Amino acid sequence: MTDAAELRVRTRKLLDEHPPATTDRTDFLRARFDAGLAWVHYPVGLGGLDAPRALQTVVDAELAAAGAPDNDPRKIGIGLGMAAPTVLAHGSDEVKERFLRPLWVGEEVWCQLFSEPGAGSDLAALATRAVRDGDDWVVDGQKVWTSSAHTARWAILIARTDPDAPKHRGITYFVCDMTDPGVEVRPLRQITGEAEFNEVFLTGVRIPDAHRLGEVGDGWRVAQTTLMNERVSIGGARIPREGGMIGKAATTWRERPGLRTHALHRRLLDLWVDAEVARLSGERLRQQLVAGRPGPEGSAMKLAFAGLNQAISGLEVELLGDEGLLYGEWEMRRPELVDFTGRDAGYRYLRSKGNSIEGGTSEVLLNIVAERVLGLPPEPRNDKDVAWKDLAR
Amino acid sequence: MTETTAPAEQPLDLLYSETEDDLRAAVRALLTDRAGPQAVLGRIETDSPYVPGLWKSLAADIGAAGLLVPEKLGGQGASHREAAVVLEELGRAVTPLPYLTSAVVATETLLAPAAESDAAAALLAELAGGRTVAVLAVPLSTAPDAELPLAEPVAAVADATAADVFLVLRADGLYAVPADEATVERQVPLDLTRPLAVVTTGAGSGTRLAGPDAARAAVRRGLLAGAGLLASEQLGLAEWCLEETVRYTRERHQFNRPVGSFQALKHRMAQLWLDLVGARAAARAAADALATGSADAPLIVAVAQAYCSKVAVRAAEECVQLHGGIGMTWEHPAHLALKRAKSDQIALGSAGRHQDTIAALVGLEPPS
To answer: Other CB atoms closer than 10 Å to residue B149's CB: what's the count?
Structure first.
């Protein structure tokens, strides 16, 4: 079993052989991957050492102390958090060897082709078709809310391969080449004025069968790997008091006494308390994870932060008065990174509207809490055992 | 954030230890056996809602009365973390017992004076052993930073009818006054599980335990611990309300379905669960901050009270509403939880009062 001491030895060896100061960034990251220090819980030969996941912090700390470059995980979050675990769990050996190294190093960006205009909360109703043609599949359809599609080399894609089966059973999971001539990416402008996301039109896109992950018709189950890892990859770090959006509102309150009213004071204090409690809840969740006792509280955090961000930013715009009437700029931009607390209060107010929609709407998440955590009975459903082609659309 | 106004953070342990889990199991077993909803309902309109012998079992036999008291002073040498777990269970069962008043507020009040005064140390040992019940003679609504001392007679003193001794803050110090030297007039409380009374102790009666400055600090310390641990009582109460509501709405059928399958109801219960996640983190934070003597404790206690008092009331109100007609009856225990939650909202300082404390501590001042 690989322990912390051995990881330190291996990390120092990597640093000795590839001094960060004199090594090209990409070369260093490739060497780190090949040394098994990329994600230590991955298998040997695929960037890891089959070590406990918790030991990654040992490696990261050593490398950070030595000033080594990292793979800028914020920019390749979909690849690291969603594509990689799915490729690892369901890909063939060839697929794993082909994709994981450039994914982790960041040489190849990934995106996720899941949501569709007609399949949001009801993702399993998706209509993008994949039809077998010799050794290939031919894909036609439209995807939406795709971040990084305009920079991505590869995509994880779910498509309908059997319209006669009930919706959950006729889906297959693929790796899609974003340079295929049938892939057209268009920016999707959102209420903030900018375009973080894209619409992706797929017309006669050819995918070799070798790039299928999991069995034909088993794509829904494979997608659960992706979506479960989406939740795990969120959070983890300690947040200081007033570390989130509340810090912005509190600072404005402190620095600009002329804006204060009694009614806003009460609302600010209500939200300050809620934000501090949400922070403590996140800290408690972190302690549970560290202790190896994860609870269902993780699903609470996204819901709590969505509501909080919306309420706090709404308060902030109101507090700003005349200034709240203004907006930074409406020019259509394509931000590389999204910072929910970045830019001005108006932007925060508008962007946070997405927090209760993206990654599962708050309404769907409340259903999940009610049914999976509290054990309440599901609503009666009429869509589970009906052929997909016969569903209302 | 501004480093100058926000107190430095301490790393807080927000989990439950195995010892705490064991203590919880022991307390829950005792209360389930001896103080179930029907037992409580059967007593609340009698002269005493307290189940006979239950205090001895909890305070002396389990040793819960001495959790805050060092062993050398006759206690268990545990901490607020363990006492908080006891209060979670007492909140769950809405048990009439003078635990918060005697084993937390009065006991904590005596901790500092016991180092200086033999009389205080002797009384503290009696409390820690569960042999004596002492109650601080202040209204239940008194916040940790309230104006002190208060004029007699003192109304709305909680658990006064169970007290053997009153701790009385006077201009010249803290006094212990035997209950039989005081006048105790019962009031009709909203929450029948926590009796209230008007207490009068004659000037000069009792034994002085501390001088004026030490007395004031001691009382504030007692009230702060009480407010912080009240959050755990509120957490336990809210947890019971949610569990009971989930259980009932899974069984109750209308329109040929369990009513708990309707999204309109499920979302309300899921929202309560979210509130409970927060309440647990806040209550644990308060207990741990008190246990470690954190400089942050006054702020975290205020946060826990401002949050948990609201959650307990909402949980109890939802419990009544989602139970439908049965929730409105005297027979169903939901009203015990509702009345306790509503009283707890006022106890040891209202949410608004605690918010004012927060505003002052973190520099979010009101308009001038």
So the answer is: 20
In CATH, the number for domain A73-226+382-393 is: 2.40.110.10
In this structure, chain A runs to a length of 393
Q: What is the pLDDT of residues B203-250, one digit of tens each?
A: 889 999 999 999 999 999 999 999 999 999 999 999 999 999 999 999
ipTM greater than cut 0.90: yes
Note whether A209 contacts B: Cβ–Cβ < 8 A. no
Pairing relationship of beta strands B207-210 and B173-178 according to DSSP bridges: antiparallel
pLDDT tops 70 at residue B1: no
Q: Are A284 and B280 within 8 A, CB to CB?
A: yes
Q: Chain B: nearest CA to A266, how far in angstroms?
A: 8
pLDDT digits (tens, 9 = 90+) for B2-53: 344 444 455 899 999 999 999 999 999 999 999 999 999 999 999 999 999 9
- Apex CA B303: angle with CA B301 and CA B309, to 5°? 90
Domain-wise residue ranges, chain A:
1-70, 73-226+382-393, 234-359
Residue pair B144/B231 in contact by the 8 Å Cβ criterion:
no
Query: Euclidean distance between the first and final Cα of chain B, in Å?
Result: 22
Task: Kindly report the nearest CA distance between residue A345 and chain B, in angstroms.
Answer: 16
Q: How far apart are the first and last CA of chain A?
A: 53
Cα–Cα distance for residue pair B353/B308, rounded to 1 Å: 14
pLDDT (0 to 100) of residue A342: 75
Say what the alpha-carbon torsion angle A335, A337, A338, A342 is, to the nearest 10 degrees. Answer: -90
Of residues A6, A230, A242, A318, which has the active-site annotation?
A: A230
8 Å CB contact between B333 and B276? no
In this structure, which amino acid lies at residue A285? Answer: L
Strand A197-208 relative to strand A136-147: parallel, antiparallel, unpaired? antiparallel
- Look at residue A152 in the predicted model and tell me its pLDDT: 97
Residue B210: its pLDDT value, please? Answer: 97
Instruction: Spell out, as residue ranges, where chain A has pLDDT lower than 50.
Output: 232-235
The mean of the pLDDT values for chain B is 96
Cβ-Cβ contacts under 8 Å, A308 against chain B: none
Domains and CATH numbers, chain B: 216-362 (1.20.140.10)
Closest by Cβ to A276, choosing from B258, B303, B367: B303
Question: Quick check: B241 and B216 in contact, CB under 8 A?
Answer: no
